[in-house]
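From the pipeline queue, job 12 of 40. The input is one protein chain; the requested action is below.

Action: predict structure.
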Amino acid sequence: MATAGNNPLYQSYAEELEHIKKQNSFRFFKDIERDNEGYIKLATQKMGLMLDLSSNDYLGLSFDQQLLEEFKETYGLPLHGLGSASSRLLTGHFEEHAKLEGLMTEAFGRAALVFNSGYHTNLGVLSALADERSLIVSDELIHASIIDGIRLTKAQRQRFEHQDYKQLEQILIQAQNNQDIDKVFVVVESVYSMDGDIADLRALVELKNKYPKTLLYVDEAHGIGVFGERGLGVAEEQGIIGKIDFLVGAFGKAVASVGGYLICAPVIREYLINKMRPLIFSTNLPPVNAAWTFFTFKKMLGMRQERESLRQLSVNLRQAVLDKGLDCPGQSHIVPIVYGANQLAVNKSLAMQEAGFYVLPIRYPTVPQGQARVRVSLHAALTWEQLEPLLAHC
């Protein structure tokens, strides 16, 4: 049992931890050893190497040693030292940051602004842009980082049921006729990380155009690198990349780096540089990180074969799980196997780990009660021969 030690003020925390443990929802860090071929080993357990099916390394770039060697040969180390030592508005803005934003502006066709993480991005953009005369309307399954950003605003808030655009339109109609509301921010993700389903961004753009107060905010954290001819995300694949007001994403997944970004109009970029607190008051990313992101992002643009391989793997696995009579929602490289009860999801994940597949249970409060699951996160370096034996343990 967790104890409060000698400080009675800690007792409530100890009691809450005990409650979390009884709910089979206790979280803790694991010491993980990795090889260069997509396998991992838990340092504290007797299990051998396991195929990593839990990371967000969708293109398999993070363990690509050839890519790392090419980066070292191209750039050398260190690049202006290994720390930026300041915020971007003081002395922490380097050539590498400008080059990265330039590459992204060229790729997306609009202004780009880079942040320290996807979390910083979602925390800061809406809290800077939305005021008391704004309404933020969000899908009920948006990521926690967006929720935290919304909580920091002075805006009015409403949610609509997941992917229910008819309900969303009713909210937009009311807001359009409300004289106390100047702007309506519609906030969604392109790929939802728990169900692996994909938003109909075309339909959302149509709604945005239909109701003039509306601005569209789309988080492409799980879409960048995976969808679109050049890997620019679901917005590119659906042909509306220039029609979304705020297109945000993260480098920590398919791009195999760290940081977040926003694609927007130049006036929005300048406004955020002056108003966004997580940008203004954070030490900037080290230049070596910006250089690595530039390198991997540029590589990503041409990885069409890897994207197609990942798509086919996703189709094959999802269909095979459905054929076993299991609940497996979504249409993407995120393949959830829904079991319902927390303990059942935990037991299934342990069985898969013992069979050599590193998957993790996803439980409440990350997903709703009764929706516990094992989430399989695929990457392009996998083969069907590696993946197919997993089915015997679902």
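Job complete. The mean pLDDT is 94.
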